[in-house]
Design brief:
heterodimer, A: alpha+beta, six-stranded mixed beta sheet, five-stranded mixed beta sheet, 4 helices, 11 strands, disordered N terminus, B: alpha+beta, disordered C terminus
Chain lengths: 160, 723
């Protein structure tokens, strides 16, 4: 029987992975550096035309078509209470898979790079951050003097 | 890859089914020792085996399919009481679990070697079934049960009824009111409540007491409990319990005779009907019920499975999306060709590109047609069901009705056919209930005694038209206007201005019904407003014509497919929207001076009638609109039933066939007024307006319909005007 062997193998591998390096995609929002687990990101959309949706709440920037599928694009800055920024050439949309199974877009000012962070580089305290940020920021990563605000995807894309 | 995953799913689902089967067998064994196995568990096992058979067929596991088939037949006999669940039969069923497990393992390892033991077991099962005659069960007591109820019992329900009667259980008739929206949950809850006391044998929508939000069900239940206990358990204001009276005379053993319908004194069967014909084949009627028994076994041979492919319609949607993408590629190619043509010395290359592009276009449209064709099914699929509805409904109201069907071969998108069934059933019932007169009345006005309901379907361009016509008494237009005024749907002034067609269309307004006394069919299912909403949702439109004393004709116009929608593309400010062409009546030049404002609402006259006006720029809060700033624009007249609305837009881009796509679930939760969106080329996305909901919204808002955000869905009933 093949199945049990491969299953245990998978569990073993996951356990090893969890105990060590985690990958984060860093991006810029209103001048600050934020990051999401790389595994949450399905795609980075560069060329896109955002179609605004009348009557939508302001955290919804609009919709884009990604290979025939309509994706709702959110503005994380509204959720994080950050200052709005104009769209520039560097703006990107991160296609993410929401817990509901829906693919959603997150509008960011600029995509920076992927960071591989060891556990000792992540500070799991968000006590220092007040206000609304606590709900979204699950940790702070430090690397070469750069401060990364690590976000958690589910509350960021939750609606209603 | 995809195949591997599907196979993997098959293994896991089959494994689950077999495990569930084994668990349920244990329960059955327990039940058998106590005397009678729980019928719900028998059903559960039957369903599991039936599903397993389907799976095996789908994944080319013929041996497993054959075994499942044999098991299914045996279990069906047990369900129907034709065979007792005995010790040695249980042993066989338990062995089947092991054999199925071994077969699944062999499939998984792609082991095609013979399995003599399994084959022998299948033979054994098949033999044990042969030569068994069904054992008719005799009932000793006769109950006076409504003939309508008896006529629609399935074979299984008949069996349960008899078993319970034989066990000396009393029968109860329960009438309960259910909310249409939560019908399933409420029913499940009721079933769970009565389970310790007895068994619900069947339930049917009852004729009276329902309205457009609720339905009254008549439930036939067998219970060992006293009626007082039952009443205490089910104490609720909207449940009535009544014990079914027994009859004492000896009866013949044959079932048909024992349950010969006895018209109760309260029976509303018309004198024109002596008695319902002998119980019709129950399976014919079963679809009328809110809840179905598991589908009867189809005579599906493994051979036919290998030649046809069952395809999830969503996969076809995905293919259609790819076609949509290719169409966008095509228009990009056309633009590049134009640029090349403009370059010096490249004319020849340009015309070659143009030729290639034309070929591409041709193949692409062939591909699109091919995909659409696969989605098509003949309307006959639902017309067959309508025949049964007519038989049933006419019997209930004691009218003689003949159904004439033409155009059953007309094909329409599978998704549309599925959604169309309920509205059609409702319209047919309305025709029989309200349209066709009783035999006496018909003879009195010189019409043939038997009424006729005609269904005619045909294709008209990219639409399918279905007409439902009856030769009944017609709709009294005057009376409709009267009622509409009385209920505050329209003012007397408006009533005077309404045209004939618009008056008739008032019956689609929510909460409208001209029948005061609820008769047998009223309250069954949904009202005409729901019919209209359902058809609108399919991008279709329903219209009504009626001649007093001569008859009524409902015309349903539907797009042939949901995959492609004819639309009018319009612009407001920098934004582009699409309107389903089926709801657009006309477009005219807009002139600010033509607008009259009354109590904050805008109107204009259109050929002698008053047309309410809404500016899309204001509805949607779009700032940079030229028409809103006094510039030129257009009025697009859209309609939803009898109600019309002029939408002011900046410009018309023209007509375009579009592939409509749903908005993301999270967006749909918070925004109303859009049916979806579509790609318009150049990466542009255009939102498709949900015209019925916009018309409702504008006409139901009392005074202002500015572009404020309205996130909560409104729940108050919407009429034509302030009520």
């Amino acid at each position: 029987m093949l199945a049990p062997a491969s299953a245990s193998d998978r569990i073993l591998r996951r356990a090893v992975a969890e105990s060590s390096i985690a990958e984060y995609l860093a991006f810029r929002l209103s001048g600050e550096t934020y990051a999401l687990p790389l595994s949450d990101i399905r795609e980075i959309l560069t060329q896109h035309v955002l179609t605004p949706v009348p009557r939508a709440p302001k955290e919804i920037l609009g919709i884009v078509s990604v290979r025939g599928q309509l994706v709702t694009v959110l503005d994380p800055r509204v959720r994080l209470r950050l200052k709005p920024q104009p769209q520039t050439k560097r703006s990107r949309i991160l296609a993410v898979l929401a817990p509901s199974g829906e693919t959603m877009g997150l509008f960011v000012d600029e995509v920076l790079q992927v960071y591989r962070l060891a556990p000792n580089e992540i500070e799991h305290t968000s006590q220092a951050l007040g206000g609304n940020a606590v709900e979204h920021v699950v940790g702070i990563g430090r690397r070469d003097g750069v401060l990364l605000f690590l976000l958690s995807l589910p509350p960021l894309v939750a609606m209603g | 890859m995809a195949d591997d995953r599907a196979r993997e799913d098959f293994f896991s689902e089959a494994q689950e089914l077999i495990e569930g089967f084994a668990r349920d067998l244990l329960l059955l064994e327990e039940g058998e020792q106590r005397g009678e196995p729980d019928p719900d568990v028998v059903n559960e096992v039957f369903r599991a085996v039936h599903t397993l058979k389907g799976l095996a067929g789908l994944f080319g596991a013929p041996r497993m399919g054959t075994l499942a088939h044999n098991l299914e037949e045996i279990l069906d006999e047990i369900r129907l009481g034709k065979r007792r669940l005995e010790r040695n039969l249980l042993d066989q069923l338990f062995r089947a679990v092991d054999v199925l497990g071994a077969m699944l393992l062999a499939e998984r390892q792609n082991d095609r070697s013979p399995m003599p033991e399994a084959d022998a077991f299948i033979d054994e099962l098949a033999h044990s079934r042969k030569g068994r005659a069904s054992e008719p069960v005799q009932s000793r007591t006769e109950y006076i049960i409504d003939p309508e109820l008896l006529a629609v019992l399935t074979e299984y329900e008949e069996h349960r009824l008899q078993t319970n009667v034989m066990n000396g259980f009393a029968l109860y008739r329960i009438r309960a009111q259910f909310n249409l929206l939560s019908l399933d949950e409420e029913l499940d809850q009721l079933k769970a409540t009565v389970k310790p006391l007895g068994e619900i044998i069947t339930f049917l929508p009852s004729g009276d007491g329902g309205d457009h939000e609720s339905i009254r069900l008549e439930i036939l239940m067998a219970s060992k409990a006293q009626s007082t206990t039952l009443t205490a358990t089910l104490s609720s204001s909207n449940i009535q319990i009544e014990e079914v009276a027994k009859r004492t005379r000896e009866i013949e053993p044959r079932y048909e005779a024992s349950l010969t319908p006895v018209p109760a004194s309260t029976s509303s069967i018309n004198a024109a009907v002596e008695r319902p014909p002998a119980a019709p084949r129950s399976s014919d009627i079963s679809e009328l019920r809110p809840q179905k028994q598991p589908e009867p076994v189809q005579g599906m041979s493994l051979r036919s499975v290998s030649q046809t492919v069952r395809v999830d319609i969503q996969k076809l949607d995905r293919l259609m999306n790819v076609v949509g993408e290719l169409a966008l590629v095509k228009s990009s190619m056309a633009r590049i060709t134009d640029r090349v043509r403009a370059m010096a010395g490249l004319r020849e290359l340009a015309s070659e590109m143009h030729r290639v592009q034309r070929t591409f276009e041709r193949h692409l449209s062939a591909m699109q047609d091919g995909i659409l064709e696969v989605r098509m099914v003949p309307l006959g699929q639902i017309f067959d069901k309508l025949g049964r509805v007519v038989r049933q409904a006419s019997r209930e109201v004691g009218k003689q009705v003949n159904l004439v069907i033409t155009g059953a071969e007309t094909e329409v998108d599978k998704l549309i056919v599925e959604e169309l069934s309920d509205p059609l059933v409702h319209m047919i019932r309305n025709a029989i209930d309200h349209g066709i007169e009783g035999a006496q009345d018909r003879i009195a006005v010189g019409k043939p005694e038997t009424g006729t309901v005609a269904i005619n379907a045909f294709q008209k361009g990219s639409h399918v038209v279905i007409e439902i016509e009856d030769d009944g008494r017609g709709i009294d237009e005057e009376r409709i206007r009267e009622v509409a005024v009385r209920r505050g749907f329209i003012t007397e002034q408006e009533a005077k201005e309404l045209g004939r067609r618009e008056s008739l269309n008032l019956i689609f307004v929510p909460g409208f019904s001209t029948k005061n006394a609820a008769d047998m069919l009223a309250g069954r299912g949904v009202g005409m407003d729901i019919v209209k909403t359902n058809i609108n949702r399919l991008g279709g439109f329903v219209d009504i014509q009626s001649e007093k004393g001569i008859g009524t004709k409902m015309t349903v116009t539907l797009p042939i497919t949901l995959a492609i929608l004819s639309s009018l593309v319009i612009g407001v400010g920098a934004q582009t929207f699409a309107l389903p062409l089926s709801s657009v009546q006309e477009a005219l030049a807009f002139e600010e001076g033509a607008i009259r404002s009354v109590e904050g609402r805008d109107f204009m006259s259109l050929r002698g009638t008053t047309l309410p006006i809404a500016r899309l720029s204001r509805l949607f809060n779009i700032a940079d609109s030229t028409s809103a700033r006094g510039g030129r624009g257009f009025v697009v007249v859209i309609s939803a039933g009898a109600r019309r609305l002029g939408l002011v837009v900046d410009h018309l881009e023209g007509q375009q066939d579009i592939v409509i796509k749903p908005l993301g679930a999270s967006l749909r939760q918070v925004v109303r007024g859009f049916a979806g969106a579509t790609e318009l080329g150049d990466q542009r996305v255009g939102l498709v307006l949900d015209t019925p909901s916009l018309v409702d919204e504008v006409l139901s808002t009392n005074s202002e319909f500015s572009g404020k955000n309205t996130f909560e869905p409104r729940s108050e009933p919407r009429g034509l005007g302030p009520s």
